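Handout, section 4.2: multi-component inputs.
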Amino acid sequence: MSTVLQDPQTTETPNYLNAEYGWKSWLLTTDHKRIALLYLISISVMFALGGVFAMLIRVELLTPEGDLVNSDTYNKLFTMHGVVMVFFFLVPSIPATLGNFLIPMMIGAKDLAFPRINLLSWYIYVAGALFAIAAIVMGGVDTGWTFYTPFSSTYSNTFVITAAVGVFISGFSSITTGLNFIVTIHKMRAPGMTWGRLPLFVWANYATSLIQVLGTPVVAITLALLALERGFHIGIFDPAIGGDPILFQHMFWFYSHPAVYIMILPGMGVISEVVPCFSRKGIFGYSFIAASSLGIAIVGFLVWGHHLFVTGMSMYAGLYFSLLSMLVAVPSAIKVFNWTATMYRGSISYATPMLYAFGFIGLFTIGGLTGLFLATLGVDVHLTDTYFVIAHFHYVMVGGMVVAYLGGLHFWWPKITGRMYPEGWGKFSALLVFVGFNVTFFPQFITGYLGQPRRYHAYAPEFQVLNVMSTAGASILALGYIIPLIYFIWSLRYGKPAGNNPWGATGLEWTTQSPPTTFNFDVTPIVTEEAYAYAKHEEAHVG
Amino acid sequence: MDQQFDSATFGMWVFLLTEIMFFGGMFGAYTVYRNMYPEAFASTSAYMNPLYGALNTAVLIVSSLSMALAVRAAHLGQQKALQICLLITMFFGICFLVIKGFEYHEHWVDMKVPLFGGHWNYSEAPQFAHQAQILFCFYFFMTGFHAVHMLVGLGIMTTIFMMARKGTFSPTYYTPVEVSGLYWHFVDIVWIFLFPLLYLIGHTRHLV
Amino acid sequence: MHSVTPVRTYVLIWVVLTIMTFVTYGVAQIDLGPFNIVIALAIAAFKMTLVIWFFMHVRTDSPLTKLFVFAGFFWMAILFVFTLGDYVSRAWMPGGKFW
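Output:
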């Protein structure tokens, strides 16, 4: 295929980046693409912050004794790591960055349905993040990111309310983003862009938005009740006066379980875009993947009790939640099979995004399968609150979601910036991430199974070797994140100019210039072909 | 314009979905505790005045009528009717909050406000003191969050009224009125449920 | 945009809503045991349906809007049913407590 070579010395073509200059044009923008970049920067900052806490945790766990920090400080470390990573990185990540940037373009629209609400959602996010950072700076929170009562409501001496307020506020950012996406996808598709022709990335974000809208308010009210209880010194969840801590857990996990699907579904959407492109083949089972996105969103709301198996919840409820937790694995498995079938007899190329996709499929599968271990009631009694759980969710969240996020960033970077990243370094970092990740987290399955408890700053000496290995892996993983940070910034000035469609991918976003103009399309596109029409395109192009 | 109307009303419904889940969470928690401590909750009924509750319900229902009529007036381009109906809606909204204020004051005097150290006293039925405290917390939180939503609603109505006075609305553009109407009706619906749950508990049962 | 509802319809709905409020209040004065709350909530649900259907124009709205309205209540029901289900089913075990 041909690429349009842009000579960087000549006048740059007008695009959304150079349309206006000055801080007001960024901080008061309503352009979804600029808002996506605002999010990209703030989310990256929070990711780095969460990563710092992770490194401190891993350094402490180099030795079996609690010698780097005392137990109270350690409690704060894992709490802040969790709060920052879950609420301020994972939940917003792909939807707020790639979703904001791409969804209007993918459906042939000029912007989202409510551009000013989109900007507001970023400001709300920043406000929430400032509260969280305030809690950290003032001395931290030590309740665990799950804020279980009565410790969080009555006994903890840390800045619980500040942190809870930060999370509460960030929830509204999530809700408004989801609301915007739902209305946009329903009402603003270009002519010919039927539901059956939508890119699967859009389907995935649609399903994600449904979860955001239906689930987030419940954690909002839960944290509000917690903050009120703590602030007014009254009891709602305090067992000493008849409150029920299990009720808190029910309400908390009603959101927080679907929240993990908020985190993973957009990642799956990225993979559904990357795999067909680098297999030069249409996606296998389009309608099954679309339906399973919705399936995950819906069934994901029915399984939260699997976080309460050992709390004294009724056994019958346990049976029900266990069964449904097994069922929720089915739509995810369908996707994995379909991606694999897409690659079968495809013409595979090994560009960096595809390497991340390979990593995702393997690591997400491992994470998902270990989730089945945990869904099994009897086994969960042994594994709960051990490192097995930690390894499980890091496999799906980091090995799945973060890997997909990196893959998506690499895939769409040329579109977003008009520049290519250096491919050699890209492949190298992907390798570092994969190796580093596995060395970090696989040993944790073993130590967890053997009994190392989570959230303890000390452990039995026989686990040391595996913990050292885990920390070593974390250093490699960290390097794998830092290198792309450097070359992405480098590429802004020195990267090879990318054409409109360096990958030869299908999708409306690739028909626009790189970087796109402010309103994306000069003329509203009219869609006439199905999504992922790679076979047709291959016939049209030579080589 | 039609697409904008559709998108805006759809967007407001999606937002109301989040409100259903927000209040729903509170209602759920309340239901759990109410069923856990039925006698304690029944004992609190002596302090909930169903007359206030019924009056407030009637007030909000009237305001919903006037709101629906306001939206209709906007749709038909009847500027005067629109402004009058908006004012009536706001008037009844304020009535609601005033009545609520009287209620809260009575609770304060009766020492039934657990939120501030000194104003809680349940010596009439001390065996229920702890559980009753939970109920009263929920009473204040549920009616409190509702009242906050009412205040926001009044703020929105004021803005809409100002826009109406400037002649912003016409039969081809009255989207903000419709969308605000949806919000207002929703706040009314929350109260429709709060009334039986909080005010009509065990009014026929005797204190144990 | 959709058709205009006549004033009469709105007033009629208002009358029904007000009457049902009185009924709720009146029924609460009679001791019907556990049915008091059932009836009160049933009436409230009926009133809510009227407000949604007529005042909020869902009657003339698209199937999509109707679906979303239904979904909201369905989701709230999920939260209720499975949380309360836990509490209720604890009593089914020997030694378990109802609440």
